[in-house]
Amino acid sequence: MRAFEFHVSIGCPIQRRRTAEQFFSRAAIRALGTDKSLAGRGDDEFTFDPPVQTLMGAKSLLTGAEVTKLWQRLEKKSLPQCGDCPANFQGGAFGCYGSVSAPVSAQGERWLVESFTPASGVESTVPAAIIAAGVTGSEIDIRRGVSSDGVPLTEAMEPARKTTNPGNQEFSSSQLLEFILSAGPILKSDLQFAFLADFGAIDLSSDEILVAATDFSSNTAVSDSAKIARFREKVRKDHAFRFGKYSSDDQSVTELKQFFRACYLALTTGGKVMVRTEFSLA
Predict the structure, then answer these.
(1) Is the peptide bond before 185 cis (omega within 30 degrees of 0)?
(2) Among candidates 238, 251, 252, which has minimal Cα distance to 202?
(3) Is pLDDT at 203 greater than 70 in this prediction?
(4) Res 219 pLDDT > 60
(5) What region does 266 belong to: left with phi over 0, alpha with psi -120 to 50, or beta?
(6) What pLDDT digit, counting tens, does each position of 107-154 carry?
(7) Could you count the other beta carbons within 10 Å of the beta carbon of residue 256?
(8) Is the per-residue pLDDT at 209 higher than 90?
(9) Contact assessment for residue 127 and residue 171, using Cβ atoms and an 8 Å cutoff
(10) C-alpha to C-alpha distance for 210 and 229, rounded to whole angstroms
(11) Cα separation of 155 and 258, whole Å?
């Protein structure tokens, strides 16, 4: 089970030929097709919603063997276009897609709150957005230890917590996860920069975040497009992605880092991050 899925949308030919839901279904084939354990699960059945298009028509139920064959066909067809894509953070076909598996580990939740280091002196930051949207984390907490298919959303029964400085405000991992799942508009707005900076994924000063918020606001004029392009180039040159790979990272931490990597690539390429989860937020 996946806690949530995501991909970097830059309007490439492969993405344009499909709706977002269809793309997620195709990309989910990648997630299974590249899973080494699938080799011994040829008779197991996997459900896809919406159905995926196969040579036999649209199907919502595929065996492991069918998934393997479909992935081989998709990989051969898509790899030439995906190989050099600037939004490809995983490598290979459909490398702009990733997911965070459920249950999210206790280590993953601790890493998320420890990474949350909001900048000072900035009004349009993630804490302000969380408070303004009324994100309490309750949508995550009610799914701790509970799932219709036997897989809870989180491993721990209680969230990790952190008091931010400045602000002296307490935030929980439940709030941060819920915010990520409901942050579609945030991830394609002027808050892109603040989002990455507040989670420590990119090194931006308060002044730079304010400049970004001005340059990337929804009211930015077309005549400012050159200025925006220069700012994106500055980010690529001067503000590298900060989350590296460590042997101590578990699967949840690794996948959460991939999510932030996707957000960084969306920021520098002018794309947006699409997030999909299997449950509905109230």
Answers:
(1) no
(2) 238
(3) yes
(4) no
(5) alpha
(6) 999 999 999 988 655 555 788 888 888 999 999 999 898 765 667 889
(7) 25
(8) no
(9) yes
(10) 17
(11) 20
Q: Return the bridge partners of 6, or none.
A: 98, 275
What is the per-residue pLDDT across 155-202, written as a single tens digit (0 to 9) for each? 999 999 998 766 678 999 999 999 998 866 556 555 677 788 889 898
pLDDT score, position 138 = 93
Of the candidates 184, 161, 169, the one whose C-alpha atom is nearest the C-alpha of residue 20 is: 184
Q: Write a three-state SS string for the chain.
A: CEEEEEEEECCCHHHHCCCHHHHHHHHHHHHHHCCHHHHHCCCCEEEEEEEEEECCEEEEEEEHHHHHHHHHHHHHHHHHHHCCCCCCCCCCCCCCEEEEECCECHHHHHHHHHHCCCCCCCCCCHHHHHHHHCCCCHHHHCCECCCCCCCCCECCCCCCEEECCCCCCEEEHHHHHHHHHCCCCHHHCCCHHHHHHHCCCCCCCHHHHHHHHHHCCCCCCHHHHHHHHHHHHHHHHHCCCCCCCCCCCCHHHHHHHHHHHHHHHHHHHCCEEEEECCCCCC
Average pLDDT, the chain: 80
One-letter amino acid for residue 11 of the chain: G
8 A C-beta contact, residue 230 and residue 195:
no
Q: What percent of the chain has pLDDT over 90?
A: 22
Encoded tokens for 256: 């959460």
**In the structure encoding, which two tokens stand for residue 221, read together?**
């004029």
